[in-house]
Specification:
single chain, alpha/beta, 7-stranded mixed beta sheet, two-stranded antiparallel ribbon, binds adenosine monophosphate
């Protein structure tokens, strides 16, 4: 499936969750088995050669893609979650959203120093969420070797806020 075909499976909803936001809804892609499989394969291809030790998925749509990618690579999966969801001892980071502020959390014992980490999420918008996640990973002494998105909104400039050369996105909107 080409990026254009994958792109056609994503539904666009204007003014969600707020007026002025053009929301890219991946649920229409997920419900199509062939498109979901093709999206996972396309997101896995650029990171396979990076030899990651673990995949981090960002709540909640990062879980949908991150967990099957970890399974396909035969490696572990670690969730980064919104504040108050993780039961063990955590570290936290506050970051800016397109609309407001948020806090992300990671279990303190989820990564070990030197581990090679790939971060997975559905859409790269301003890049704030992933930039915050990188700070969490680095606090634990692990290394972000790749970041894989299904789609990217280049107009929001997220890529410029992330490390050079390690970001992949299949579909530009
Ligand atoms: P950001 O931190 O701005 O890169 O936003 C990242 C998170 O917000 C991602 O997990 C996306 O799923 C979600 N997001 C932001 N903007 C959009 C959008 N226009 N359409 C769909 N998801 C979005």
């Amino acid at each position: 499936m080409t990026p254009e075909q994958l792109s056609s499976k994503i539904r666009t909803i204007p003014d969600f969750p707020k007026k002025g936001i053009v929301f890219r809804d991946i649920t229409t892609l997920l419900q199509d088995g062939e498109a979901f499989a093709a999206a996972l394969e396309a997101m896995t291809a650029p990171i396979r050669g990076l030899k990651p030790d673990v995949i981090i998925g960002i709540e909640s749509r990062g879980f949908i893609f991150g967990a099957p990618i970890a399974h396909a690579l035969g490696i572990g999966f670690v969730p980064v979650r919104k504040l108050g969801k993780l039961p063990g001892e955590t570290i936290t980071v506050e970051y800016e959203l397109e609309y407001g502020k948020n806090v992300l959390e990671l279990h303190r014992d989820a990564l070990t120093p030197g581990q090679r980490v790939v971060i997975v999420d559905d859409v790269l918008a301003t890049g704030g969420t992933v930039a915050g996640t990188i700070r969490l990973v680095e606090q634990l002494g692990a290394q972000v070797v790749g970041i894989s998105f299904l789609a990217e909104l280049p107009a929001l400039g997220g890529r410029a806020r992330l490390p050079d050369g390690i970001v992949s996105a299949i579909i530009p909107f």
